[in-house]
Design brief:
140 residues; alpha/beta; Rossmann fold; five-stranded parallel sheet; 6 helices; 17% strand
Length: 140
């Protein structure tokens, strides 16, 4: 697992149109020691924030108005490019097999269904961030 000192350097972008969901996710992340957290209620701003913030992990809701998580997942995956790995974790209340398959096919690295177990969620976040760090180290 990652050393605690590495947590403060990791940047997390959380995109969800529900303020209560953002608050819960941020509370769990902050409790785990993450401090570089950006949140977005409006998925239309996600590409701009992604490019400016350069996150190490994106946490993305699927069911949002106007621009849904699937369309955004596709856009963000194309922005990362082939020579970079920015994992995307999907957070969704949709437990259908179709939703999971579609999100994974579009590039999601993990899927967590709401409501989620906070301990499991924290472990999954840490695992994806460790993957990101290993990828960055390998590129050096």
């Amino acid at each position: 697992m990652m050393a605690e000192r590495d947590l403060s350097a990791m940047r997390l972008l959380v995109i969800d149109d529900e303020p209560a969901n953002l608050a819960l996710v941020c509370a769990v992340l902050e409790r785990e020691g993450y401090s570089e957290i950006e949140t977005l209620l409006d998925p239309a701003q996600a590409v701009e924030r992604y490019l400016a913030f350069q996150p190490d992990l994106v946490l993305l809701d699927l069911m949002m108005p106007d621009l849904d998580g699937y369309a955004l997942l596709d856009r963000l995956e194309r922005l990362a490019g082939r020579d970079d790995l920015v994992p995307i974790m999907v957070l969704t209340a949709d437990t259908s097999l179709e939703a999971k398959r579609r999100a994974l096919a579009l590039g999601a690295r993990d899927i967590v269904t709401k409501p989620f177990d906070v301990f499991e969620f924290a472990l999954r976040v840490a695992n994806l961030l460790e993957l990101r760090m290993l990828f960055r180290e390998r590129r050096r």
